[in-house]
Amino acid sequence: MAKFETKFGKRLRELRKEHSISAEELAKIMGINKSTISRYETGKREPYIPFVQELALHFNVSMDWLVGRSDIRTPNTDLGTLEKIYNSLPDTAKIELVNYAKYLQNTHLNSRGTSTEAVDKNNDENDTK
User: Fold this and answer.
1) How much is the pTM?
2) pLDDT (tens place) for every residue of the chain, 129 residues total
3) What span, in angstroms and rounded, lies between the C-alpha atoms of 123 and 100?
């Protein structure tokens, strides 16, 4: 538990400093006491999930990054962009895009030494649905 709190506190402080926000200002924005921010940053208190969610939204970072579960800082918004592109394409281009995505998936899995049999089977099952 201390590892989580330490990482969270460090990243919370880092975000405040990057945005030039004092603990008092952030507390006001988030609707909590300044002492609570201080306790989060020093690891004396564990944050509740709704607070982490609000904080991640406020600073546009991923919750996983904020709590130290990932080193990827920004939330994944690429799927929405990809979906918009896919939906705007004619049917023949959609087929090409899916085939290219399968090619990329297999290429990257092979480069990591992962078998593509399960991926191919899953892709085939999805194609028949």
Assistant:
1) 0.57
2) 445 547 999 999 999 999 999 999 999 999 999 999 999 999 999 999 999 999 999 998 999 999 998 888 887 666 677 788 888 999 999 999 999 988 888 887 776 665 444 445 544 554 544
3) 13
